[in-house]
Amino acid sequence: MIGYSLNNNDMKYTSKNDILLDASRVLMEEARAIQACAERLQQHTETRQGYEHAVELIFKSLEAGGKVVVTGVGKSGKIGEKIVATMLSTGTSATFLHPVEALHGDLGVIQVNDVVLALSFSGNTEELMALLPSIKHRQVPIIGLGGNEKSKLAKECQAWLDGHVDREAGTVPAPTSSTTLALALGDALALSLAKLRSFSTDGFALNHPGGSLGRRLLLKVSDTMITTSVAGSVSPQASLDLVIMEMTRHPKASGVVVIDNDDEDMTMIPTPPCSTTSEDDSTDGQVVGVITHGDIHRILKSSDKDGIFNIRAADIMTRNPITCQSNTLALDALQLMTNKSLREKSLPLLPVLTKSGRWQGVVTLKDLQEFF
Hints:
By secondary structure, this protein is an alpha/beta fold.
């Protein structure tokens, strides 16, 4: 049982369930603040015009080679830093400027084509107000984001982003709903600009090369595949013992690829369209099948001892296997291998082909799962 009070007069928790209910109320209050703002954007002319004008000012600045300088103090400053991070990752040039540091030399970061986004819920923050005359002297437009449309900041800025909330969430008067709404408005602003400037997922990936997002959007099969020099292959007429030996020699490949070098018997295997890819390290002949460890186990269980010596690769291979190309996204290859709507079990490997259909190597499920 938990029994402590807030400020000795406030709500007292008597059980863990009370804590969970209180947490739910906080989340719901913050969600309502965002929903109310969204409704104002759709229904209130001044709120809508303020947002539209803010986007126009930033777009004009970026097109002229400028950037967004975000500024704020305390919790507003922390939210401002996050807004800068979101803008940078979505293609908008931005930087954070602390008002106090600005008054002591850092004001030089603001250049002629820039635009300033100033955050203050009250709209009357002293440090921020002290900075405004210097910004206006540079003839740089100011966008305000706050909760008081009658504040000094609202009167001094060229565009006002309506971040009003009726109350903060919870029983302690800490910035909660107001900062959550400011963060959400910053996200909306960044994404509006990204779409307006045709910022693509490729651009987003280029800004995230080191993380999982970058890997999902940039990593190609060529970056993860096992080349023909270290991947096993056999002909359709290879005996079972040769198939097993080839698998043992190349354990990383999770199986062997069956290559038919008889031009008269070759059946063209359709491959997905692709852009130009290197033909280096590729092997002549057509991929006609794959053999995995599971195929070997099944045939050994179902065959009599004498019949084993007559088994050939063509008897146990999976014919016309699903393939990919070296420039296929690794994530797309993984989805091909694990698509439950196409097959009951995941594919342990995919042969990798050049644009002309020549075998270049294999990509394995194990390797892709380690990346993602």
